[in-house]
Amino acid sequence: MQQSGPEPVRPDGTGGGGLPEPLIELSDVTVRYGAGPGSVLAVDKFSLAIPQRCFLSIIGPSGCGKSSVLNLIAGYHKPSSGTVRMNGTEIVGPGPERMVVHQQSTALLPWFSAARNVALALTARGQPKAAAREGARHYLNMVGLAGFDDHPIYQLSGGMRQRLALARALATEAKVILLDEPLGAIDALQRAVLQDLLIRLWDETHTCFVMITHSVEEAVYVSTDVISMSARPGRIIRQQKFDFNRSALAGADSHVRASPEFAEAEEELYETLTAASSGKTAPSEGD
User: Fold this and answer.
1) What mean pLDDT do residues 110-134 have?
2) What is the CATH number that goes with domain 50-77+87-97+176-287?
3) Measured between alpha carbons, how far is 152 from 177 in angstroms, rounded to an integer?
4) Domains of the chain: which residue ranges?
5) Which residue, 141, 143, 137, 142, is CA-closest to 105?
6) The pLDDT value given to residue 19
7) Which of 37, 101, 138, 282 has the fewest CB atoms inside 10 Å of its own CB, making it the most exposed?
8) Closest Cα to residue 205, out of 77, 53, 30?
9) pLDDT per residue as tens digits for the range 210-253
10) Is 90 exceeded by the pLDDT of residue 16?
11) What is the rounded distance in angstroms from the CA atom of residue 254 to the CA atom of residue 258?
């Protein structure tokens, strides 16, 4: 069910109401592509504090700057103005504490087996090859790919490749897993299964997940926190908290989506996004 959020963390990094400092903090960020009259303001006045262990989904109209925000956290891009920090330290580039899983698993190495793809993350952390091989089996088991250690990438389905990409990201022991529409190319049945897998991995690893999605149902189902963005230039127009993922973890996954509370939350978020797409104002956090 939907919950009211706590007092947000202030841009100076101190927590209102005794909250701890955020894991990731974006303070008054703008992103502008190009220069001069033809430049495009993609993100404007964007401030967000992401706490430890949350599952945050970012949703909004196409072209609103969702991926730009994810790229700022990943360190792929620098803001045109404002700051992006992790644990109080400014992010100036990519780092092993922030791993990205893309929609098409393009970062997987096709000439490696499934196990070798995962073991690569472990050897990068300094593990010997034998230990990395054993560790790879552990992460493959976590994502439901037991027995596929030696399979080449081309023998894996799209859903299996996404599981493998998740396994490799988790093997880095990153503090933040950044998910750029990870299930966007998956069929509906497998998508529901993988949504449950994402929730379980988030819960078991105590890792912060930040996900871009276009699916209202997915955002409500898997997330502890949902940020809705306006049409370009992207700004936060609403922040909401949900706990449907906790109900799914408790074994009620088959009933969560059928509940009146879930339908109400979906409709409310959909209305927020419809207003955002049309340029109308939307409710603020907790309304």
Assistant:
1) 93
2) 3.40.50.300
3) 24
4) 50-77+87-97+176-287, 110-173
5) 143
6) 55
7) 37
8) 53
9) 999 999 999 999 999 999 999 999 999 999 999 999 988 887 66
10) no
11) 8
